[in-house]
Structure formats: structure tokens, C-alpha cells
Design brief:
It is built from twelve helices and 33 strands. With 570 residues, it is α/β, with parallel strands linked by helices. It folds into three domains: 181 residues, no CATH class; 217 residues, TIM Barrel, CATH 3.20.20; 71 residues, no CATH class. The longest helix has 19 residues.
């Protein structure tokens, strides 16, 4: 172990080069920096900051230069692609409800050659991981306390570097597991129902939802095999102009839902669990509660959406939100919540609490308060219903978020089957036992059912959420949906809980495999691939766009006939 203590800067030699840590405006702070070797062989940078009294911590930055050898591509759970970026264009950030501090650099043979993981997954963290043009060097930069932060007197954190060549998927999973262990994160329980096929009201209804229409749709959905329903935005307002100006009171629109408890009961009698959408931070500018919480907002109109963002550092704000969800659970006997826009808990400039000397706030750090809020929500809901379902949406999918939610959904990507596939695979690698869900599926009914099936097959390694208007669907499309729901349930343990191996992230996973003790399921998404098929019973889902594909099994290569949009047992 190497340990250096200086007032403002420190450095240590790692296997891949020198790692430096610098502090700005140290103002009485002392820095300790140590290099440690983990039991698995990864190298750990341990950083400690101490001050004699509570003060705003200094901006602190770690930097490293790593030769670009075997690092042709880069990965993060929320990345849109895997291209390497220049150091001047490779900036990102993470915190409790934004992203995940895991970055993997790999080659075209699914081999990781360098990965970075940070223990800090609650507070804001800035990250740079791009190529320095002079000499083809990967320049790593990690910054702490570069956004408004509350006074503290002690801070300790770790960064994990792994320069060993290993499988890409293993590198991701090991880095995430290290964060969970080091940060003391205990993911919440994942009930079996979190993996059930789901119907969402959002893409087909948007805000124009009515109890009778929903019940009509869900009668069809139940016959197709769907088991869960999310009523999205619209149940709490008569307005249909989008935006969030009427959020925050959370009173049911009596015009849309004359008797919410009776409506929920009728849906549950169909064999479908009922979940409700809430935009957690928003109090609409046209809501009755807007004036009530004046002075207790982080900002007054988030991104021009017509809503202010609550400040969870106020205990009465947290109590209001917790009580809101508890009341809904008790009054309507719902089965779960879609808790949306957690990532909107952020400053739009300076922290307004500083000028007020944090008056009325029992927590000074905003990310820490978000963590407290969501913990209180989870504890209150599970005390009433231990198997409560809680869905969060990309990009708030980091390790900390798994303490409060058991369903993680791909961010909105309507009509984008490739994005759904790519994001599902990323989330599967990074989310442990959480139930990873697709973004809601929709397609135009003018498509052939075989082509529409491609949207489903691209989402089959997650829990598929459907959001097409079933009552308007041609019978051939309904038959296709029913067929694939049955397939997903017949092979559920393999698809969702088996050994998961997505191939070639740089090509957005043209082949994905899942293996259980009894079988292998392969998704084929590219017509230019030779599919390696084991001797074990194997099912190949063909989304290649061609009606045949080439396999290699037992050293022999052969062509297999299978229509695109279908599956075959080999």
C-alpha cells in the first residue's frame, strides 16, 4: 500500500501509470491518498479528506493517463453508443438518481482491458474518460464537490481500477458488485410479479385515460397473458396539454375515474396487478399545493415544464411525499408505483439553501436527502405491502437506486427497437437481480405481424411492456403478442434469470444469449452472423430480417430455415 498525505495534492504509482489527486481551495482540509490491492487483484485508490470543523469540501479531482492499448470502445450503462471520445468531449456525471459510475474500455472481441468504478453513487460525481490526442492516451478524470455541496468535516471514498484483460460482461458485473459491497448497498427484494408481462397506458392513451377504456383494454390484455398494468400520467388531471402544471395535488380526476378503488378492484379481478404513476419532485404551478410549498423548492420551474421541484431536505416535504403514496396504497389497494423524474432533484444554479443558512432543512446535502426520501418511501410502502412493485426509469438506474426499487425500465425510445435491445442488455449487466423492463412497445398496425414481432424479440431479454391499443389491433397482431408472451413465460427463468451474455456491445449486441441448466435461448439481430449453438437444447429467436441463418454446432456449419419474427428449436 502506498500512502501520501499532503495539504493539497498526492500521487501514487499504479500498474498502468501514475494516479494523482488534487484539491482546490483547501481552506484547512487535509488530503490522504492510498493505493490498495483488492483480493481479486483490482487496484483501489482510497481518498480521505479531513477538516477540523464542518466546511464546504474542496473541489477534489483524480487524474490518470493510461496508454490506449486494447481499448477500442467505451461503455457506460447510459451510453448511446460505444465509440471512444476525445478528452474534450468525454464528459459525464453521476449521482444518486443519474447514471452509474462504472466505465469499461474494451476491444472488438468482447474483452475488457481497463475499467473504472467509483464508490460514490449518491453525491454528484463528474467523469472524463476520453482520448488525449498526443500519444493516444486514455485520460481519466474524476471530480468530487464540483457542484453545490453542504458543509462536512470528513469524507472518504474509493475508486477501483482494473487493468486486467477479462470478458467485457464480467468486467461490468464485477465493477457493479464491488460498488454495492464497498458502499454497503443492499438491493431491495424483487417479487416474482416484477417479472410479469406488463401493459402501460402511456404511448396509446397518453393523458387521455378513463376507467372504462382501461378496463376494456385490460380484458384483452389479460387473455393475452399480461399480468401487470401501469396507469401513467393523466389520472390526476382533466388537462391533456402534456407538461406537469397540474401535478402535486394527486387528487383523482372524478370525470376519468369516478371510483378509483372500485376500478382498481375490477382490474385486479382480471388477474392484473395495478400500478400508478407519480412525478415525485414536481408540484405544478397550477396546483393547489404550489403555494403551500413556496420557499421549499430546489427550483421554481424545472426545464419549463410548468412545475417546481420540491426540496427533500425539508422533513415536511419528505413527509408529504411519503404520506401521499401511503394514502394511495391504503385507499385504493394498488400493487405498485411508477415513481418518475427522480433525476429532476437538482440545482438550476446556486443552492438556494446557502443564503438561508439551511433554515428548516434537517439535511444539508441534496443527494443525501434524495437518498433519505426514497429510503423512507420504500420503508413505508413495504411495511404495508412487502411485495410492493416500484418502477424507476433510465437514467436513474445506478446501484443506489436499487435500494428503493425492483423494476428498472429502459428510457423512452418509442419505435426504436435497437435502442430497446441495447439498453436492456446494458441494464441487465449492471442491475443484478432487479427486473429489467423494456420501454413500452408500440408499432403501426399497417406492419405485418412478422415485422411487428421484431419489436418484441428485441426486448425479450427484459420484461416486455406493451403499449399498443389492443382493441384496435388486427387479430393477427393479437395472436403474435399472445404467442410471444407464452414463449417469454415458457422460458422465463432462462431469459430473465439465466447466465446472461450479450455479444459485441460496440455493434449494439447483434447476438444475445441466456443459459439455464436445461436450455439456451439466443436472440439473433443481424443477418451477417454465424451463430454458435451448443449441444444443449437451444432456441433461437430470429430478428435478423432474413428467413434463414447460419449456425456452427459441434464444429459443423449449416444453414437453418426460420422466418424472421419467429423462433426455432435446435
Amino acid at each position: 500500500m502506498t500512502s501520501i498525505i499532503l495539504a493539497a495534492a498526492a500521487a501514487a504509482t499504479f500498474s498502468f501509470g501514475e494516479v494523482k489527486v488534487d484539491c482546490e481551495e483547501r481552506d484547512g482540509w487535509k488530503l490522504a491518498f492510498a493505493r490498495e490491492v483488492a483480493p481479486d487483484g483490482a487496484e483501489i485508490a482510497k481518498i480521505t479528506l479531513d477538516c477540523a470543523e464542518a466546511r464546504v469540501p474542496p473541489k477534489t479531482r483524480l487524474s490518470a493517463m493510461v496508454p490506449q492499448v486494447g481499448m477500442d470502445y467505451s461503455w457506460n450503462v447510459n451510453t448511446g453508443d460505444c465509440g471512444m471520445r476525445p478528452n474534450w468531449g468525454a464528459h459525464s456525471h453521476t449521482e444518486v438518481a443519474q447514471g452509474m459510475p462504472v466505465f469499461v474500455y474494451f476491444d472488438g472481441n468482447d474483452t475488457s482491458h481497463f475499467s473504472v468504478a467509483a464508490e460514490e453513487c449518491v453525491r454528484h460525481l463528474n467523469y472524463v474518460g476520453g482520448i488525449r490526442e498526443e500519444g493516444s492516451i486514455l485520460e481519466i478524470g474524476i471530480g468530487w464537490f464540483e457542484t453545490p455541496e453542504a458543509p462536512i468535516s470528513h469524507y472518504e471514498t474509493r475508486v477501483r481500477f482494473d487493468a486486467r484483460a477479462k470478458g467485457f460482461a464480467d468486467a461490468v458485473r464485477e465493477a457493479v458488485a464491488w460498488i454495492e459491497k464497498t458502499a454497503g448497498i443492499v438491493p431491495c427484494r424483487v417479487p416474482d410479479a416484477a417479472c410479469d408481462p406488463l401493459y402501460s397506458s402511456w404511448y396509446n392513451f397518453h393523458q387521455d385515460v378513463f376507467a372504462a377504456d382501461i378496463e376494456s383494454e385490460l380484458a384483452i390484455a389479460a387473455k393475452l397473458g399480461m399480468k401487470t398494468f401501469i396507469v401513467d400520467d393523466g389520472w390526476q388531471t382533466d388537462d391533456t396539454n402534456r407538461g406537469y402544471a397540474f401535478c402535486g395535488d394527486w387528487q383523482v380526476s372524478k370525470r376519468r375515474f369516478p371510483d378509483m378503488a372500485a376500478h382498481v378492484k375490477r382490474v385486479q379481478d382480471l388477474g392484473i396487478k395495478y400500478m400508478m404513476w407519480y412525478s415525485v419532485p414536481f408540484v405544478g404551478l397550477k396546483s393547489a399545493n404550489y403555494e403551500k410549498f413556496k420557499g421549499k423548492y430546489v427550483n421554481d420551474n424545472d426545464r419549463g415544464m410548468g412545475a417546481a421541484v420540491l426540496d427533500p431536505r425539508f422533513p415536511e416535504v419528505r413527509k408529504f411525499l411519503v404520506d401521499t403514496y401511503v394514502k394511495a396504497l391504503k385507499d385504493w389497494n394498488i400493487d405498485g408505483f411508477k415513481l418518475d423524474f427522480i433525476d429532476a432533484f437538482r440545482f438550476s444554479g446556486e443552492d438556494p439553501a446557502v443564503k438561508e443558512n439551511y433554515a428548516g432543512r434537517d439535511i444539508k446535502s441534496l443527494p443525501v436527502a434524495v437518498d433519505r426520501l426514497m429510503t423512507e418511501v420504500k420503508d413505508a410502502l413495504t411495511a404495508i405491502k412487502p411485495d410492493i412493485l416500484v418502477e424507476f426509469r433510465q437514467s436513474y438506474v445506478g446501484p443506489a437506486i436499487r435500494k428503493y426499487g425492483n423494476m428498472l425500465r429502459v428510457g423512452d425510445c418509442p419505435g426504436n427497437l435497437r435502442r430497446n435491445r441495447f439498453a436492456i442488455a446494458n441494464l441487465r449487466l449492471a442491475s443484478g437481480s432487479a427486473a429489467v423492463h423494456s420501454d413500452m412497445l408500440e408499432w403501426n398496425f399497417a406492419e405485418s405481424p412478422e415485422h411487428a414481432a421484431l419489436y418484441v424479440i428485441n426486448s425479450m431479454f427484459g420484461v416486455v411492456q406493451y403499449s399498443v391499443m389492443l382493441r384496435n389491433a388486427p387479430k393477427e397482431h393479437l395472436a403474435m403478442v399472445e404467442k410471444w408472451i407464452k414463449f417469454s413465460q415458457d422460458h422465463r427463468d432462462t431469459l430473465l434469470k439465466g447466465k446472461f451474455t450479450p455479444r459485441h456491445p460496440e455493434l449494439q449486441y447483434p447476438v444475445i444469449e441466456a443459459e439455464s441448466d436445461k436450455e439456451v435461448v439466443i436472440g439473433l439481430y443481424d443477418d451477417g452472423r454465424v451463430v454458435d449453438v451448443p449441444e444443449k437444447k437451444t432456441f433461437v429467436m430470429n430478428a435478423s430480417g432474413k428467413d434463414s441463418f447460419v449456425i456452427r454446432r459441434g464444429g459443423k456449419i449449416s444453414e437453418v430455415s426460420c422466418k424472421s419474427g419467429d423462433w426455432i428449436e435446435l
